[in-house]
Amino acid sequence: MEQIPGQNKDEEKEIIENKAFSTKDELSFDEFVSKRKNGMNMYNNFFALFLKEGMLADLLRGQEFFTHFQNENKEFEESLTKRISEWRDTENSVTDATPEDILRDLYKAYKIMLSYDEIKTNNDLFE
Prior knowledge:
Layout: H1 7-22, H2 29-33, H3 55-61, H4 64-72, H5 74-88, H6 100-114, H7 123-126
Helix pairs in contact: 4-5, 5-6
C-alpha cells in the first residue's frame, strides 16, 4: 500500500492529541508546543492563565488548580504573567512565534500544575 504524503504526521498529531485530551500522561516539551491537526497550539488556552486581564484570563485564573499554583509559586507566576503580558502587548505578538524562554516557562508551569489532584487530564489545563 502506497504511503500518502503527510499521513504519518497526521497520525502522530492524532496520537499526541489523544494523549493530551484523554490522559494525565505528561507531555514532552515538543508535544506541548506542537500544533494540533486544526493548527492550534497543543497547549491552547493554557497561556491565558498568565494574562493580566481579559474575560478568558479572569475565567481561567479563578480555577482551583491555578490558585493552588499561585499560592505555591507566587514569584514564578508573577514573573511569567508579567513577561507574557508584556510580550502580548507588542505589535508583533500576533504574527511572531512565542519566545522560547516563555514556552519553556509555560511548560514548567504545566508540569507543576499537572501534578495537582484537581487535574484529571491534560485537557483540564488546556481548555
